[in-house]
Write a structure and sequence with these properties.
Strand order of the largest sheet: 1-2
Largest sheet: 2 strands, antiparallel
Helix content: 25-40%
Shape: flat
Order of helices and strands: HEEHHH
Radius of gyration: 33 Å
Structural class: mainly alpha
């Protein structure tokens, strides 16, 4: 068997199979965010709004903020904490100086 030579599997450049369920879900999701002509039940005025906008307007303020924060996770990467060791060591000392210091001896 030669190295670097494909012996099985898909041919290079073969596109992925179309998934009908994936297409249906995508179109349903996109329709949820597309603005459509609506009519205000009280005033009879026409306006443009998506189902998403109407659902968000129907939520209480704290629920709306929670929903926005959950949706934000899909648009921005989550920030993670970074551990850092900020200890500073004295570079000018030699091993002999350190041993003398640890032994508690003074040269004087």
């Amino acid at each position: 068997m030669a190295l670097g030579k494909k012996t099985g599997g898909r041919q290079k450049g073969t596109p992925n199979k179309e998934n009908p369920l994936k297409g249906y879900i995508r179109s349903h999701s996109m329709a949820y965010f597309e603005p459509r002509q609506r009519m205000n039940e009280k005033t009879g005025e026409e306006f443009m709004a998506s189902d998403f906008e109407l659902d968000m307007a129907a939520l209480a303020a704290d629920d709306r903020v929670a929903a926005e924060l959950k949706l934000l996770k899909f648009h921005m990467p989550e920030m993670k904490a970074i551990d850092m060791d900020m200890t500073v060591s004295e570079v000018g000392k030699t091993i002999e100086d350190r041993l003398t210091e640890l032994a508690g001896e003074d040269d004087e």
